[in-house]
Amino acid sequence: MIETRPTPVAGPALDATGAIPMSQADFNRIANRVQDDYGIQLPLAKKDLVYSRLLRRVRSLGFADFGAYCDHVESVAGLPERTEMLSALTTNVTHFFRERHHFDLLSSLVLPPLIEAARRGSRVRLWSAGCSSGQEPYSLALTLLALCPDAARLDIRILATDIDPKMIARGKDALYPAAERIAISEPLLSRFTEAEPMGDGFRISEAARALVTFAPLNLIGDWPIRGPFDVIFCRNVAIYFSAAIQERLWQRFAAITRPGAYLFIGHSERITGPAEARLENVGITAYRVLPQHDGDRQTSDSTGATQ
Ligand SMILES: C[S@@+](CC[C@H](N)C(=O)[O-])C[C@H]1O[C@@H](n2cnc3c(N)ncnc32)[C@H](O)[C@@H]1O
């Protein structure tokens, strides 16, 4: 394996308080890199947060200052560190059945006709876009299994994607601390989770894991996925993007779904731009995709399907 770690320099450039300083220029370089690569905005108000989250990386890699760290991150050899930087800077907060009203709407309105369609042989696809450590797609799986215990025998699957490979790995492991059980109802806990033999946590059962495929995906890059999707959850992700990137994202979601599909977004997000005409509000931050008009691009058959 190629050693990409740089040769440490003489030692950190400490300021009068003994801390490694981060200049405005350093912050701008980091913020621009994160914006260009991942669409995530880091306003100046987040400078202290960025500093505290990256200081450990700067120290452990032996850089003299943030400038040297930025040089490394922007070099070809620094590509792996870009991923580490991303992991350190992204907000991955999530929990099971977050914004429960969305799962109530799924159970009552969205899933029953989709399950019927799947029983008649249709292909049904759900997507948790920006899934963090997996609690969201597994909440989808548990909601589906409660209505349709034989879902694995039908062509119903859930795609779970996130830009952060560490989150994807955690989602695949499906191991969660015991404290997170509180958000899952007792019948679902007893049917679809297992005690974790090595600790006091729990694991999502094989029946639910089998419905979910995890994959890394940058929402502002190409989407090597086929669609069309019947349900998309993209919650508490777009809030970190600029207005222009959000608008484009809503349009891409509308284009990769079937007419009549559903899009769920986070509590502090809202649909803006041209996609507003395609998305009908059907509940709190829940939308139904209206049929596309003549001339709209048909994107449901793009290349390289992962789902
Ligand atoms: C706050 S979590 C939301 C998790 C879950 N959707 C929820 O609402 O509980 C935001 C997630 O978005 C992911 N994310 C940020 N920028 C992204 C991008 N450009 N592409 C894909 N995922 C991204 C982060 O890695 C993080 O896991």
UniProtKB/TrEMBL annotation:
<dbReference type="InterPro" id="IPR026024">
    <property type="entry name" value="Chemotaxis_MeTrfase_CheR"/>
</dbReference>
<dbReference type="InterPro" id="IPR036804">
    <property type="entry name" value="CheR_N_sf"/>
</dbReference>
<keyword id="KW-0949">S-adenosyl-L-methionine</keyword>
<dbReference type="Pfam" id="PF01739">
    <property type="entry name" value="CheR"/>
</dbReference>
<feature type="domain" description="CheR-type methyltransferase">
    <location>
        <begin position="15"/>
        <end position="292"/>
    </location>
</feature>
<dbReference type="InterPro" id="IPR029063">
    <property type="entry name" value="SAM-dependent_MTases_sf"/>
</dbReference>
<keyword id="KW-0489">Methyltransferase</keyword>
<protein>
    <recommendedName>
        <fullName>Chemotaxis protein methyltransferase</fullName>
        <ecNumber>2.1.1.80</ecNumber>
    </recommendedName>
</protein>
<keyword id="KW-0808">Transferase</keyword>
<dbReference type="Pfam" id="PF03705">
    <property type="entry name" value="CheR_N"/>
</dbReference>
<dbReference type="InterPro" id="IPR050903">
    <property type="entry name" value="Bact_Chemotaxis_MeTrfase"/>
</dbReference>
<dbReference type="GO" id="GO:0008168">
    <property type="term" value="F:methyltransferase activity"/>
</dbReference>
<dbReference type="InterPro" id="IPR022642">
    <property type="entry name" value="CheR_C"/>
</dbReference>
<dbReference type="GO" id="GO:0032259">
    <property type="term" value="P:methylation"/>
</dbReference>
<dbReference type="InterPro" id="IPR000780">
    <property type="entry name" value="CheR_MeTrfase"/>
</dbReference>
<dbReference type="InterPro" id="IPR022641">
    <property type="entry name" value="CheR_N"/>
</dbReference>
<comment type="function">
    <text>Methylation of the membrane-bound methyl-accepting chemotaxis proteins (MCP) to form gamma-glutamyl methyl ester residues in MCP.</text>
</comment>
